[in-house]
Amino acid sequence: MNTADPSLPFGTARLRTDGGPDAADEDDTEKPVVLVVDDEERIPQAFALWLGDDYAVRTANSGEEAFERLDESVDVVLLDRQMPGLSGDEVLERIREEEYGCRVAMVTGVDPDFDIVDMPFDDYLKKPVGREQLRETVDRLLSVSDYDEAIRTYFALSEKRATLESEKTRSELDASDEYASLLDQLDEQEERMNELMGRMDPDQLDALFRELDGGAEPGAGTPGSADG
Question: What is the DSSP code (8-state) at residue 77?
């Protein structure tokens, strides 16, 4: 049984680590697998409790430990950026270099800057993160994983655009070469998206736009929509 721990956020409880019935890694083969990586121990514990009903949650408290817990069965990684030793940015790069098939969301206290344009993540959440936002993000990333790579790329680029537009002023965006490059990438990817959508049936299109609209801020746009 979980035991109450006042050191955890929102009155959550401390997970057992003895392999008992509350262990976060149980039933990995029966549920989608989520790996939470954060050097603050209470964060992975809280996220595991929030997600544990529907996902098999693994936790790691460092970048090095993340690779002890990561394998091809992992579907989504929730990754802090600032950690001692191997940083979240370095973990992300290695995940992509070693071609793991998982989706990656950065979950961090670091304010997003224009350097995120070149970072190969799928979503960016600024702490503090609530339970519903976290669950919606994981659900969305799992849904996007079922789509063609072109759609996943468009989704990731759209998330970057929405993140920057929520944090930066219009003058900062207009002055940024990185932001201009991001818009160019979105335009190129939109052509591929339109080609793919021409081969989809109405139900597939409806599901796709629900996923994209769920992750983007108003005004981020989807293929064929007014962009303001």
Answer: E
